[in-house]
Amino acid sequence: MKQKFWKNFWHLFRGYWNSEEKWKARGLLAFVIGLNFASVYLLVRLNSWYNVFYNALQQYQAESFWPLIGEFTGLAFLYIILAVYAIYLRQMLQIKWRTWMTNRYLDGWMKDQVYYRLQVLRSDTDNPDQRISEDINQFISLTLQLLIGILKQITTLGAFGVVLWNLSGAFTVPIGGHEFVIYGYMFWFSLLYSVLGTIGVHFVGRKLIGLNFDQQRYEADFRFNMMRVRENSESIAFYRGEQPESVGFAERFAKVIKNYWQLMRRTKILNFYVNGYGQLAIIVPLVMAAPQYFAGTMTLGGLMQTSSAFGRVQDALSYFVSVYDTIAQLAAVIRRLSGFTAHMEGASDIKSEVVREKAADDALVVRDFDVKLPDGRVLLSDCNLTIKEGERLLITGASGCGKSTLLRTLAGIWPYGSGEIEIPEKSRILFLPQRPYLPLGSLRRALYYPLSASGPEENLKDVLRKVGLADFIPRLDDIDDWSRILSLGEQQRLAFARVLLVKPDWVFLDEATSALDEPREQEMYELMRRELPHTGIISVGHRSTLFSQHEEELHLTGDGSWQCRPVTV
Ligand SMILES: Nc1ncnc2c1ncn2[C@@H]1O[C@H](COP(=O)(O)OP(=O)(O)OP(=O)(O)O)[C@@H](O)[C@H]1O
Predict the structure, then answer these.
(1) DSSP state string for 209-277
(2) Closest ligand 1 atom, CA of 120?
(3) Ligand 1 pocket, 402 CB below 6 A?
(4) Mutate which of 123, 125, 395, 403 to test ligand 1's pocket (most atoms within 8 Å of Cβ)?
(5) What is the ipTM of this complex?
(6) pTM for this one?
(7) Does residue 491 sit in the same domain as residue 550?
(8) 352 CA to middle of ligand 1, Å?
């Protein structure tokens, strides 16, 4: 388990530090660590200042007062600058690393249509959006926080440990007639105090990790429940499903609150402990050093310096308790990101056995074509077809026989297939699904999608009139969620407008007219035939009226066999 944690951590970590930006990144990290070391050095200087200052006070050296205050101000000023820039530059490193890693993940997600494969082919991948936007950010910020924090605390521990050791001198303990001398006893004592404190915090606080984890889970469940209602608002409204939905909300929210109460109670106990421990840490070194002070072997300055150094050592050791929770968070993030990375790599590695070649003449030729499901089930076997320029083919068959999957394989997005497709060079292909995709933004952008540039205005208006969307001409530049505003039939007509604008060489239509009435459907097909006589059309549909719009029919049986015949209406 631990080995896996480190392996996964290393896998996620190493990319950026070995990338083309590695020298800048390593340099910046070294500088940030250097700033942290310098701030520890300043703390040590401030700590010895205590010694000198209190000794001067004890000896009523008025002439030393202002120079010492001046020295403190100078050191404190430097410390402030270092502390601010140590954080600022760490954040700079964080944002650079995040930019690099996010771009990598976005590229990987888009490459080989992984975004599609993850959703269609692997049902066990959850929210890529959250992985890319939140988890990467958390991974980086927690890693830097831990890496720099741990190094700083180790340095603090070393530096102040030495200070304490030097200050405490030897302590003689008489046991049974013998005298034992303990060197650096304050150091050992602070170590013991911190170790006991750490064990105590672990004991009191460990339940918080589980409770925090549960809290996040319950909050996510509650949020997810509301999101489902937002996404399915229309269906729920038709069903009048408010009552069961409200019960669902109440149940999930009750869990959030119940767990939060437990969290509050545990935190209260922990806060008693942490505050008590902190306050005790002020008194304990004074009590421990008092015998030496009253014996005259330690000055007031020494006493104050000891007390401050004890606090630093104790803080540094206790840091490892406070990072307990951070490490648990990091472990969870690493688990999620590694799972996502593995799924992305897996999806990208599935290689299609379909060979795509440039056709000698203007026809789309399919040879020895097989279409399968991920479990190996054959939907279509050994299919051979030739669709000439401007020809129209209708794919028919019972529901679930594999019509859409065949279209996906021909379009090159379904990888479980084999065979050969010859397609004329530079052919433009457009795919019209049942529910067309409308990107966020203006209607104009939606119409030209996936092209980024728009064409002549008059042509656009003319096309909109032809597909019966003239009413939307004044709203072409309105920015809105058009998939919510337009009815499904209007969206399907918009997709036909897109065909007329993009002028593809081949169009694949997957029940692209299902929401249109039959006369409108005929109109759309005739429009395509008139405007784009050289465009090959391959449709999937159940309506009998579609036959008159196609010359050939490819009938699938679902067990692999098929039949291609001319349409006779
Ligand atoms: N991602 C997937 N993983 C596993 N099986 C799938 C996947 N997608 C589709 N299938 C299965 O493949 C078969 C063919 O599906 P397809 O959508 O191609 O059928 P269809 O003929 O277009 O159906 P319909 O006419 O109902 O739209 C179905 O049995 C379906 O359950």
Answers:
(1) HHHHHHHHHHHHHHHHHHHHHHHTHHHHHHHTTHHHHHHHHHHHHHHHHHHHHHHHHHHHHHHHHHHHH
(2) 1
(3) yes
(4) 403
(5) 0.95
(6) 0.77
(7) yes
(8) 18
